[in-house]
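Exam revision sheet. Question 4 asks you to relate a sequence to its structure. Input first:
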Amino acid sequence: MNREEELAKQYLKNLPSISLDFEPDGNVPPDFLMNDSIAIEVTRLNEHIEIQGVLKRFDDESFSIIAYVENILNSFNSAINGTCFWASINIKRPFGNRKKTKKKLIELLKSFDRTQNVNCRLEYPVTNGLSVSFIEGTFDPSAPVFRLGGIDEHDSGGWVYEDVATNSMHCINTKSLKVSPY
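Answer key, structure tokens:
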């Protein structure tokens, strides 16, 4: 049972006078059968982004991009005059080629050979999908020079009605195709 199904089960179990069977026909729809007569198929409503004509879950893409950038920042282990910096990243979609992004981000980090070279009032564009700004932090010899301190996702949030409507239709269409054979 995945997380979404577990949450649905907890909710449904709190309803008065119901019987609930999980996957009554095996690992095929529905996820639950309530009172032997109501089929329930569970899905998570989440934000999607269209990249090259394909809808992708925003949070799947987001987690991997953030981890990727954080690994690059953490791998940079050159000390800059005993100073550390917090990096705030601004992500835009499409993110672009990760190898090129890595190369350009490392070039930027290497250009900071002295503390004075890091302008904490600037946002440094790395690629069309990534920019970085810095805040000087307290030196910690056991920590990387650049640590991820903030994340701004240009494509996330904002006015939600259109996103909810679009993503609801995406979920309805996806689940309709899934349950149509049953």
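Marking note for examiners. The first helix runs from residue 3 to 13.
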